[in-house]
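Chain A, query sequence.
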Amino acid sequence: MRQGEVASTGKWIGNPQGGVTAPDPLILPDPAARFAATAARLRALSDGHPMADWLRFMAGLAQAQHDAVATLGPLAGPDAVQVRQAVEARMPPLAADGHRRHALWRESFAVLLDSSDEGPFGGTVPAEARAVMQSLRARGVAAAEKLADDFLSSGVAPADRGAALYVAAALQVYFTYLAGQLSAADLRLLPERGLCPCCGSSPVSGVVTASGPTPGTRYLHCSLCSTAWNHVRAVCITCGKSGAVSLLGIEGDSGAVKAETCGDCHSYAKMLYQPQDMKVDPVADDLATLGLDVLVAEAGWSRHAPNPLLLIG
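Chain A, predicted structure.
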């Protein structure tokens, strides 16, 4: 199943006259729609937002990611044998820390760096961002590959965090494109249920569904390849415990975005609720609710994993 497709009826569990269907264990991304959807949501959320200019800039980046998808085809991912071997070994077939990148990922990188007033950013690129983009264009292939290695190994130097934004965005395009070519039927959830079964990365946020054959199901959304996978609710995605899990939100808002906190490991993760807003997007709504991150952090909780597009702080 692909994100955006109508879910199949699935198989009945128990009595087919009154049972429930099993949720899809994972949903692969649709690269042709993933980044355009995030761009549209960011533009909508920017209206009247205290960080409107920044959200419009990030919308432009997402639109540039959408345009960059076209630079990758045709690009072959792992074949059926490689996928089967990885799954049998309980490993992700596109393991971010071991995958041998094709040089075409840099085509997407180039599209992002060439975005300007005439491009998807729509004239909202700050001078500091322009300087970073110009510097990256001048640094060459070897520097880009090193930045990609550093990002995927969580070893980005403080001085390179601004540059890492564009590298992370390009790698999201690349890994999302490869994940979109796989078959969900060939994949399995990992033993570490808080990690993406496709590339092994952490989720950017979770979404609780309001429609489909299994409304109320929680899916975590990968921060790198955009794969979504089912994770039981009311269980901490960091430590797997459930005894001290609670939800925190901002009083008076729609209730569509909350922080799920764990008193056992003192971590939190963003959860988005379609019953409160059917238009929530796992990336856009995370970026638009940084105020919630600040409040939860001030209360002593540490985020489960950073949003890759927020390495610059």
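The longest helix spans residues 127-152. The mean pLDDT is 89.
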